[in-house]
């Protein structure tokens, strides 16, 4: 387990991650994310920054709300 990122496979920003090497895989395009690249981490998933926005627009509205832990409320309904 890494002392910096607490993972078996280093997080892309981890100082222990090998320079210029693929440190993890983008969950959207399935390409590698190289150390130094900008990435976005949501829940357990990691995306290239640009892939993250593609991903956001590709998923269903309801799943999007779940992803951010939000709830769609209908006005006028009693709990
Ligand atoms: Zn690490
Ligand atoms: Zn990607």
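-> sequence recovered:
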């Amino acid at each position: 387990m890494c002392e910096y990122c607490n993972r078996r496979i280093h997080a892309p920003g981890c100082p222990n991650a090998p320079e210029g090497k693929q440190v993890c895989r983008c969950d959207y395009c399935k390409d590698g994310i190289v150390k130094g690249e900008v990435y976005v981490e949501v829940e357990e998933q990691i995306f290239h920054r640009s892939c993250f926005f593609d991903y956001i627009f590709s998923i269903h509205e309801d799943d999007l709300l779940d992803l951010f832990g939000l709830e769609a409320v209908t006005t006028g309904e009693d709990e």
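The radius of gyration is 16 Å.
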